[in-house]
Every structure is written in C-alpha cells, then in structure tokens.
Amino acid sequence: MDNSYRVGYSRKLWHEVKRFAARWPVGARHVCCLCGDRVQRFLPYREGLAGMPAVVTMADIIGSDVENFECPACGCHDRERHLFLYFKAVGLLESMRGARVLHFAPESRLRHLIAAAGPAAYVRADLHPRQVGVQAMDLTAIDCPADNLDFVIANHVLEHVDDDAKALREIFRVLKPGGRAVLQTPFSALRPGAVEDPRIESARARLEAYGQEDHCRLYGRNFAEHVMSFGFISHVGTHGSLLPNVDAHISGVNAREPFLLFAKPEAGS
Question: What's the CA gap between 105 and 103, in Å, rounded?
C-alpha cells in the first residue's frame, strides 16, 4: 500500500467519522431543508476558511458558506440548499410544471425535485457528465433551437466557463421571451468588475487568483449588470428580502448570497 493511498484512505475515514458525529440527533439545532434531518452541524468545505486561499477573505468572495458546506446526512451542499429555499420563496418549482427546463451540472437532490414538479421537458446536462441521465452539452454551444426554453439553471457554473460571453449569448438565444435563467456564481463584494487573465492557467495560480483551481475568473459586484449587458432583465433578490424568516445559520446557507435570477424580455417589451 503506497503512502498516497494511505493518506487518501485516512482522509476519507476521518470525513466519515466527522459525518457520523455531526449527525448525532440529541440537541441538534441545524436543519437541512432538503432531507429534513436535524444535525449538530454542517461540515466545512476542505478545512473551512482556514483552508481557503487568501483571496477569499481579501476580495470578500460571496458564494458558498465554506464553514457550513455539506449536510452530514444527505451530502447536499449549501448552495443547493439555498437555491431550493429561493425556489420555494418565489414559487419557481410550481411554475416549472409543464415547462421546458435545461439544468447544467444538475445537483442530485434538486434535480429530483424539479423532475417531480412535472416539467414538459427536463434536460440535465454537463460538459463532462458523470451521472446517469445527464447528457454531454457545452454551455457555449447549447444543442437547442432559439426561443425554446422556459428555464435555464446554471448554479455555480459560469465561473468555470472559458468564454462566459458566448455562454450568456447562448442562454439568451435558447430562452423563450419571458424565459428565466438562474445564474448563481461566486463574486467579490470589493472588486467593481471581474478579474480575468488568460495567462493564469495553472491550477495553483487559479486557486490563488480566483479562489478555486478550476475557476476561469472572479466576478465583481457588477455581475448583474454584466449579465444584463447581454439583453437580460434582472430579478435579483437578497436573502433578507426573499427569506426573511429563514435563519441562515440553522439552515446552513450564506445569507449574503443573493438569488441571481434573470429573464429574457417579453416580445415587444
């Protein structure tokens, strides 16, 4: 048994121990909105903020709550929980009944809830699919006619796309007039615009510059304006306005993460 295998096995075993302890029900105050279990705590991403590169705090990146990331009971992540709560708040799941939905990088629990809502068509897609029922598709070249879809969901996807302008044009093209796009992404609250440099190529350099090894840029606080420059209307909402009665700490979500919802204008508007 080589040392790398031992290290990997030890980390996996330690993670399972932490999951078991976090699921202890006695006195548990946190609640996962997706599985309904009460848990002692949500598990951190990597080692939480202590394991994050300096840019996360220096640029005040708003995205996942890395301290309260994974549900120890069902394994869902905070951004999936938050999106579900936002969907409930604005009635988005109900409006998917009979609709045509395209969901990129579909989260396991959320995709089951969307399917249960009864859409007329529900396409689950990923650039490199690893799950049954998810088809290969590039967000910059969507295999779909124009004015065809009611919803496009891309939860923490755009920051991974090499050419986000091409992706946004494609999303706009395939949406029907009045169609909506959910485009959650991490962004810096301190930087006015995106930080992007094609010379930043290595995983280590991207981690230090953007906060994660496979990110292509770090968006700034003008993200909504950036999306609107491609013709979209903004329906962005905050946790405070849409979820005033949801305790972010108990639910394991980041109260600073807004709901980044956009729409293609109705014909003639």
Answer: 7
Residue with the bigger pLDDT between 24 and 5: it is 24
Which of 22, 55, 67 is CA-nearest to residue 41? 22
pLDDT per residue as tens digits for the range 82-94:
999 999 999 999 9
Residue 188 forms beta bridges with which residues?
61
Write 55-60 long-range contacts (CB < 8 A, 24+): 55/208, 55/209, 55/210, 55/211, 55/218, 56/211, 59/188, 59/189, 59/190, 59/191, 59/195, 59/211, 59/218, 60/188, 60/189, 60/190
The answer to whether 148 touches 238, Cβ cutoff 8 Å, is: no
- If DSSP codes are grouped into helix, strand and coil, which group holds residue 122? strand
Residues 165 and 197 sit within 8 Å (Cβ to Cβ): no
